[in-house]
Amino acid sequence: MNNFKDYYDFIALISREFLKKHKVYKYRTKKVEEMDDEQVISACNWYYEENNLAEEFHNYCNREWNEHMGRKYLGKTIRVTVDRPLGSHHPEHKNLVYPVNYGYFEGLRAPDGEWQDVYILGVYEAVNSFEGKVIAVIHRLDDIEDKWVVCPDEYSFTKEEIFEATEFQEKYYKIEILM
After folding, report:
1. What's the Rg (C-alpha) of the chain?
2. How far is CA 145 from CA 137, 139, 168, in A?
């Protein structure tokens, strides 16, 4: 993937959506629909700076980019490094025990600056690493990060089964499961 081109195109699209979300159809003297990508990115930058919306725009971009990248990896095989194996306790919330293996994919940074978080389903013993296919993205509507769900090739899970397996942590968020 040509990251710069894809990301630039993505930012132009998100800038258009952000302006539309804020009911900005014309900026200064030009209609947004008539602007090229460079102009719409600039207009969006000016708009969010003038209206103190830089943090909102940044979070919006992060959420959308995270969802976009999650969809791109659906069906692909990735290697997950497990830092919270099945049966381990959360490092900060000691009463939280992981009923699944949980780790990260080193191929992509999440909006929090860390590697992409991943739940591993269908593996019923603690492991240090795992290679499997991405079957779902848990898109958090009220957080900047999404979580990916990976399982062995021979397994499949429904949205309901994925929610049941991850609700120990996802119950605190408003989510949608993308497959």
Report:
1. 19
2. 10, 8, 17
Query: Contact 178/160 with Cβ under 8 angstroms?
Result: no
State the pTM of this model: 0.79
* Second-level CATH architecture of 74-178: Alpha-Beta Complex (3.90)
Q: Are 145 and 105 in contact (CB under 8 A)?
A: no
Show me where the domains of the chain are located: 3-52, 74-178
Walk along the chain (179 residues) and give the pLDDT tens digit of each residue.
334 456 778 889 999 999 999 999 998 889 999 999 999 999 999 999 999 999 899 888 877 888 888 889 999 999 999 999 999 999 898 889 999 999 999 988 887 888 999 999 999 999 999 999 999 999 998 888 899 999 999 999 999 999 999 999 999 999 999 99
